[in-house]
Write a structure and sequence with these properties.
Layout (H helix, E strand, L loop, with lengths): L1 H6 L5 E6 L4 H8 L10 E9 L2 H9 L31 H11 L27 H11 L4 H10 L1 H8 L26 E9 L4 E5 L7 E5 L9 H16 L10 E7 L1 H14 L7 H28 L3 H14 L2 H26 L1
Antiparallel strand pairs: 1-6, 2-3, 2-6, 3-4, 4-5
Length: 357
Amino acid sequence: FTNLIESFGVKNVELTELWSLDDDSLKTLTSPIDGIDNAAVHGLIFLFKWQRQQSAASASSNEGSSSRGTPLTGDDVPDGLYFARQTVQNACATQAILSVLFNSGNAIISKEGEEDNKEDDNGGRRLVLGQTLSNFKDFTSHFPADLRGEAIGSSDDIRTAHNSFGRSEDAFLSDPSKPKRVATDDDDVFHFIAYVPHDESGSVFELDGLQPGPIKVGSFKSDDKDNNSDEWIKVARDAIQARLSNYSPTEIKFNLMAIVQDKRTYLNERLNALAAIGIGENDPSMVQIQSELHAEEEKRAQWDVENARRRHNYLPFCVELLRTLAGSGKMEGLMTKAKNSAAEKRKRAEEWKQQQK
């Protein structure tokens, strides 16, 4: 997802995963390295298994309210809070990312016709939205939420970036004439939503494109500090935990990510600071930071490999593999083994379901 963000022209941020909601895990977001305790956290993105019954309950409400609060619409939406309805299939991840980027309070927004914004990015500590998203946000800023969603689906730049990071069958609007498979009750359907702070009102909002508007999930103390990440993240954490409470204790299909400051910014700052006071390259402190910086670069190189594999069409390879197995006489035995294994798994799953009743 970091590569997707950068493909929009956004700079100075990355996407990182959270494995726990405890205080120590949240602290790693605002303190990515020793000596840094105020790193910017622009927003959280939560992936969860969509529950049909919850959606039906929300849709049946006259005001579209949910158990978490009433979606705000019209003049009730705070000034400066950007919300778009999701009108395109298979685009909830991209839409959640855009929701965070468009609501970053300290972002540098490029002006129309300017190739490079000359505004100081504070040594890489400020999010640079880039020309593509800056133009899009400016163009749609006065649109209602549903038209913003339509504009996202109609944007060639956003669609191209989204489609370039997935398989062809995941592309949105790639072939409107192609029939879409409808999910059944047996399918696991997943959805992405965003949590962002709104400093002007001191509130945290849940941005779910399937809702008619943003949902306020709590308040935090907003002051004149560079950022209030410590305060608002805890409010979002409580809202996410409330969502988790609606699922079985055995459910584990969740993912939580944060759009944060590019860690390399702080590492390069530390290297320059040590060099400025005469610390040599072979000093242990310098070697440690250089090692961490190298690890960050290696991580991005691995992302490039994973993205290349994700884009690659493995179908010809699979067809040739099946043809070779059939020609060697091994296919029938492997199929029998696979069928027996699948039957055993189904049997264990049914036994587990019976035990849960």
